[in-house]
Design a protein that fits this description.
The complex is a heterodimer of chains A (about 350) and B (about 325). With about 350 residues, chain A is α/β, with parallel strands linked by helices. Helix content of chain A is about 30%, strand content about 20%. In chain A, the strands form two sheets. Chain A has an eight-stranded mixed β-sheet with strand order 6-7-8-3-9-10-12-11, with helices on both faces. A four-stranded antiparallel β-sheet of chain A has the order 2-1-4-5. The radius of gyration of chain A is 22 Å and the shape is globular. The chains are: A alpha/beta (about 350), B alpha/beta (about 325).
Chain lengths: ~350, ~325
C-alpha cells in the first residue's frame, strides 16, 4: 500500500473519530426523467440532501410514504446504485464513489433484505445454495465449511436443516424471508438494510419475522437501517427514527420523542392519519390537503408547504434546514419549530397540545 | 328489521388440476342498511371469494357454489347472467384494491362514469355528465369538471380510488363491496378515502362490505366485524365488542401480533401465532385452528365448534373462548 495518506484518510484524521457504523452526509441521487420525444428532459430528485448516522447495534427506522426516497437511500447505502453526490462512510471508509470492483470486498460489511421474498430469491437455486452464495461469490471457505455455516444460519433463523435442499417455491412467504435474512447475515455484516422486510406478509407472520430480526441483532450485534411505511412497525423496532418527505429527512429523533412529541407538521399529520386498532380511541384527524408533489417538480422553499396546514410566507421561499431547536438529538426541518413550545400546532381549532420538552 | 343482504351457508369450491380447493366452506352473515361490515382475515382465508360471490363475479366454469345470497329477499344465486348484469352497478357495486387496473386507461374518467349512469338510469349524456361532476365533487376531487376530461394515468392513486368510489355509487347502490380499497394507498391518502366511504354510508345509507386484512382500518370504519379463518367465520361481533374482548383464540392471536399491542404492553417481543394455515383441500369435522391453538383439547379435534352467541351481539365458534379479563 502507498505510504502517503489518501484524501479520505486525511479527512478522517482531521475530524474526531466516530464509532458510527454508517455516516451519511449530503447524500443525493438524481435520475434523468421525462420523455426524450416530447422534449421535457428533467431530473427527478429522488434523494436530495440526506444526512444520517447509525451507531453500533442501533436500529434506525426510516419512514415515509411512496416516493419519499427511502428505498433509494437504502440502495445508495448498500451501493446497489451510485449516488449522485454526498458521502457515505461505512465503518469509517468512504464508499460513495467506489467502483463495483473496489466495493466488492467491502460487501461483507453491508447487506440488504428486500420486501418481496418471492422475487429476491433465485427460483432455480436450493435454499442451501442461496444462503451460501455470499461465501461462494468470494471464494471463501471449503465446501464442507460452507455447509456447516449454512446449517448454523438455518438454525439461527428458525428453519429446519432439511430446508437446505428445498427450492424457494416450496416455502411460505415467512420462510422465504427467513432465508433472505440467513443469506444477508452469513458473512456477519455490521450493517443490514431492511427494505420493508415484513410488509408483504400477514400480520402473524410479520410478527415472527420482526421478532427474529431483533433476536438476531441480539446474537450477532449488527446495526440496521429499517425502511418502512408502517408507523407501528417502525415504532416497535427502531431505536431512532427518521421521517422522509420528498427526498429529505424532515425529522429525526429517538423513538420515544417522535411518538410523544412530534414536531414537524408532516410527522404530526402522518401520526394522526395512521389507523389505530382500537375503536375507543377518539379520532381528531388532520387530513392533509392535496397530493405528494412530483420529485421532478420540487416546490420552492419548504417542500411540504404545498400541503402544510400551517405554512407561512417564509415557508414558500426559504428551504428549512434539519436542525435541533428544542434538543440536539431532536432535529427538525421546519421554520415554525419554537425552542420553547416545540412544533407548531397543526390542528388549528384546538389550543396548543404539543408536549414541549424541558 | 330484516337484513338487506343475507348470505346463508355459502360455500365455494374451485376445481383445479390438483384437486378441489375449498376456498369458502360455510359462511353466513347479514348486512343491514347503512352498515359497514368488515370481513377480516389473512391471505387465503376466503374473504375475497366470499365477497365476490355476492354479485356473482366468480368465474362460472370450474366453480361449485352452495348456499344462497339474498338481496332484499331475492336470491341472487338463482339469477341468470343477464339478470345479474342489471343488479351489478345498480344495486351492488364493487371497488377493488388496485384502481389503475380497474379503470379503462383509454377513456377519460368522465366518460367511464357517464357510461355507468347511462346504462342504469337512462339519463341523456348532458344530465349524466352533470351527475358525474356532482359525484366527483362528492368524493372530494378538486375541480371535478376539469377532472372529468382526465385519463386515469393523469391521476394519482388516491384520486383514482376516489373515481372508482364515485363510479361505484353513481347509481345509488344498496350494497357497496370494497375489496381492500386502501391497501395500495399511503396512510395520509388512506385516511381521506376511508373518510369518503364513511360519509357515503352515513349520507346515502349505502351498506358496505369491507374486505381488509388491516385491523387498524377495521377499528376506524366498521360497525360489525366477521373474522374468517380457513373459509369459515370464526367470530362475529360489533366492532366495540370485538376489540374490547376478542373471544376466538385466532382473533386474540391476530390482535396480539400487532406491533401496537406490544407497544401498549411495553414488550420487546411480538406475540406470534405458530404453525401454518391448513391447505384448503378438505374439510374435516374439527376446529381447523386447533393445531395452532394453545387452548385446543380433544373436543376441538373431535367435532367442529359452531358459531354461537356468547354475549349480546357477539358470536364465536370455539369451545374455549376467551373471556373479558383475558386480554393483558
Amino acid at each position: 500500500m502507498a505510504e502517503l495518506p489518501t484524501a479520505t484518510e486525511l479527512t478522517t484524521v482531521s475530524q474526531p473519530p466516530t464509532d458510527n457504523v454508517l455516516t451519511v452526509r449530503g447524500l443525493t441521487k438524481h435520475y434523468a426523467g421525462g420523455s426524450r420525444l416530447r422534449g421535457g428532459r428533467h431530473s427527478v430528485r429522488a434523494v436530495d440532501g440526506v444526512d444520517l448516522h447509525i451507531g453500533p447495534g442501533e436500529i434506525l427506522g426510516l419512514v415515509g410514504e411512496s416516493g419519499s426516497g427511502k428505498s433509494t437511500v437504502g440502495r445508495c447505502v448498500t451501493r446497489l446504485t451510485r449516488p449522485t453526490s454526498g458521502s457515505i462512510e461505512l465503518l469509517g471508509r468512504e464508499i460513495s464513489g467506489l467502483s463495483e470492483r473496489r466495493m466488492r470486498p467491502l460487501r461483507q460489511d453491508v447487506h440488504i433484505v428486500f420486501q418481496d421474498p418471492y422475487s429476491s430469491l433465485n427460483p432455480r437455486m436450493t435454499v442451501g445454495d442461496i444462503i451460501a452464495e455470499p461465501l461462494r461469490q468470494q471464494g471463501l471457505r471449503s465446501r464442507r465449511e460452507r455447509v456447516r455455516e449454512v446449517e448454523d444460519m438455518l438454525e439461527r433463523t428458525g428453519l429446519r436443516t432439511e430446508t437446505r435442499s428445498r427450492f424457494p417455491h416450496e416455502l411460505s412467504g415467512g420462510q422465504r424471508q427467513r432465508v433472505a435474512l440467513a443469506r444477508a447475515l452469513i458473512r456477519r455484516p455490521r450493517l443490514i438494510v431492511a427494505d420493508e422486510p415484513a410488509s408483504a406478509l400477514d400480520v402473524s407472520v410479520q410478527a415472527a419475522i420482526l421478532n427474529l430480526l431483533l433476536e438476531l441483532r441480539q446474537q450477532l450485534n449488527f446495526s440496521c437501517l429499517f425502511i418502512s411505511h408502517d408507523l407501528s412497525v417502525v415504532e416497535f423496532i427502531s431505536d431512532r427514527i427518521a421521517v422522509m418527505y420528498l427526498g429529505r429527512i424532515v425529522e429525526m429523533t429517538t423513538r420515544e420523542r417522535l411518538f410523544t412529541a412530534p414536531q414537524h407538521p408532516y410527522t404530526q399529520a402522518l401520526l394522526s392519519a395512521a389507523p389505530v386498532p382500537d375503536p375507543t380511541v377518539a379520532r381528531d384527524r388532520v387530513v392533509l390537503r392535496g397530493e405528494l408533489p412530483s420529485a421532478a417538480a420540487m416546490p420552492a422553499g419548504c417542500r411540504f408547504h404545498t400541503r402544510c396546514p400551517v405554512a407561512v410566507e417564509r415557508c414558500r421561499t426559504e428551504d428549512p434546514q434539519l436542525v435541533g431547536v428544542t434538543a440536539a438529538e431532536h432535529r427538525v426541518a421546519c421554520h415554525l419549530v419554537d425552542p420553547v413550545h416545540g412544533g407548531p400546532d397543526i390542528s388549528t381549532p384546538r389550543s396548543a397540545h404539543v408536549d414541549h420538552p424541558a | 328489521m330484516t337484513a338487506l343482504l343475507e348470505v346463508d351457508h355459502l360455500g365455494v369450491t374451485f376445481r383445479t388440476e390438483d384437486g378441489p380447493v375449498l376456498a369458502v366452506k360455510d359462511m353466513s352473515f347479514t348486512l343491514n342498511q347503512g352498515e359497514i361490515l368488515a370481513l377480516v382475515g389473512e391471505s387465503g382465508c376466503g374473504k375475497s371469494v366470499t365477497a365476490m360471490s355476492i354479485p356473482g363475479l366468480l368465474p362460472t366454469h370450474g366453480v361449485a357454489r352452495r348456499g344462497s345470497v339474498l338481496l332484499s329477499g331475492r336470491d341472487l344465486t338463482t339469477l341468470a347472467e343477464h339478470e345479474l348484469e342489471s343488479v351489478r352497478g345498480k344495486e351492488i357495486s364493487v371497488i377493488f384494491q388496485e384502481p389503475m387496473t380497474s379503470l379503462n386507461p383509454s377513456y377519460t374518467v368522465g366518460k367511464q362514469i357517464v357510461e355507468v349512469i347511462a346504462r342504469h338510469q337512462g339519463m341523456n349524456r348532458r344530465q349524466a355528465l352533470g351527475r358525474a361532476v356532482e359525484l366527483l365533487s362528492m368524493v372530494g376531487i378538486p375541480d371535478p369538471r376539469r377532472r372529468c376530461a382526465s385519463y386515469p394515468h393523469q391521476l394519482s392513486g388516491g384520486m383514482r380510488q376516489r373515481v372508482m368510489i364515485a363510479m361505484a355509487v353513481a347509481c345509488d347502490p344498496k350494497v357497496l363491496i370494497a375489496d381492500e380499497p386502501t391497501t395500495a394507498l399511503d396512510v395520509t391518502i388512506q385516511a381521506g378515502v376511508l373518510e369518503v366511504i364513511r360519509t357515503l354510508c352515513r349520507e346515502l345509507g349505502t351498506a358496505v362490505v369491507l374486505i381488509t386484512h388491516d385491523l387498524g382500518v377495521v377499528a376506524e370504519v366498521a360497525d360489525r366485524v366477521v373474522v374468517m379463518y380457513a373459509g369459515r367465520a370464526v367470530e362475529q361481533a360489533s366492532v366495540g365488542s370485538l376489540f374490547a374482548a376478542p373471544q376466538h383464540p385466532y382473533t386474540m392471536g391476530l390482535m396480539g401480533a400487532l406491533p401496537a399491542n406490544a407497544l401498549r404492553t411495553k414488550s420487546r417481543r411480538l406475540a406470534e401465532i405458530t404453525g401454518l394455515v391448513p391447505a384448503p383441500v378438505d374439510d374435516p369435522d374439527e376446529c381447523q385452528f386447533a393445531p395452532r391453538c394453545g387452548r385446543a383439547t380433544a373436543e376441538c379435534r373431535a367435532t367442529r365448534p359452531k358459531l354461537a352467541e356468547s354475549r349480546v351481539d357477539h358470536h364465536v365458534a370455539c369451545y374455549h373462548p376467551g373471556r373479558e379479563d383475558d386480554r393483558g
